[in-house]
Amino acid sequence: MPRVEPPPPPQRRRIDPAIVEPSGPVHVSPSAPHGEPVTGTHIPPGAPAPAQIRPRFEFGNPFGYVCARLFAFLLDVGLVSVVVTSLAYSLIAVNPITGLPTNTQGGFDATFALGLAVALVYVWVAEASFGTTIGKLVTGLHVYVLRSGGAVGLGRAFIRGLLRPVDLLIVGGVLALLPRRRRLGDLAGGTIVARSPLRGFAPVLGWILALILAGVPIVLAGFGKTMLSLLAFYQFFPGIVTHIVGLAHDALRFTHLVS
Question: Does 250 reside within a domain?
Fold first, then answer.
């Protein structure tokens, strides 16, 4: 009688786990067990991954927010222009642009114009490089790119500054009161101004930097010359205001004639 051997046992089929390539950068947390990847947002199994997650910004009270933005800009321009003008008045006897003595109305006007130009360049570069200025630190504000929340850059900051004169004519304040909280410069540059990431430490740092900057003329030119430069402001600043009002009147008159 032939011998019947039992059939061999069925072999188990080996199924390799599926390999899923991440659609974005994967961060590995040092505290995760066995180096497991940890992403910034938890996505439940089977749920579709979001195309893009925009950062959330905080603004606070709308009216206080608008006032803080205006105060920050005036503090930046006022502080830097006064410091530069004071140094130029104390260290330079004759204005190199006009050839007039700095202790005359014409010479002081040109010196103050130089200080104002330096202040505007400072605001531009500081916002582009750090996202903030001394004035914005004092008021706890920061400039972000709307979509990514990252650094602003020279191009976006330049567009913001270019449209700032238009925004200062009440237009910017009205737009900043709206829910989107963006003036014309922000709309054109793709930026937004919101609460500083430094939180409560920002005003402390801002006032410290403001005091340091205000003391620069005393350190470089001396206390006596600095006081004389402040006296010159008291003497010549009314004339500067008169010139500014006259220029604004001429600009409005030209606009009316063109229209």
Answer: no
SS3 11: coil
- Looking at the 3D structure of the chain, how many domains does it have? 1
- Domain, as residue range, for 112: 64-236
DSSP-H helix ranges across the chain: 62-91, 105-130, 134-138, 153-162, 164-166, 172-177, 184-189, 201-214, 216-221, 223-258
Burial of 25 (0-12, 13-18, 19+ CB in 10 A): exposed
Half-sphere exposure at residue 189, Cβ-oriented, CA atoms within 13 angstroms: 28
Under 8 Å between Cβ of 176 and 155: no
Closest of 156, 154, 88, 151 to residue 117, by C-alpha: 88
The DSSP bridge pattern shows strands 141-145 and 27-28 to be unpaired
Amino acid at 256: H
Q: pTM value? A: 0.73
Cα end-to-end span (Å), the chain: 119
Distances from the Cα of 131 to the Cα of 14, 41, 45, 151, 193, angstroms: 55, 26, 38, 6, 9
Confirm whether 29 is domain-assigned: no
Question: How confident is the model over 78-117, as pLDDT tens digits?
Answer: 999 999 999 999 998 887 777 778 888 888 988 999 999 9
From CA 185, how far away is CA 161, in angstroms rounded? 7
Work out the mean pLDDT of the chain and round it to a whole number. Answer: 80
Closest to 183 (Cα-Cα) out of 129, 139, 143:
143
What are the distances in angstroms from CA 202 to CA 132, 206, 211? 10, 6, 14
Q: Is residue 30 part of a domain?
A: no
In angstroms, what CA-CA distances link 67 with 18, 182, 210, 213, 216?
A: 56, 14, 19, 23, 28
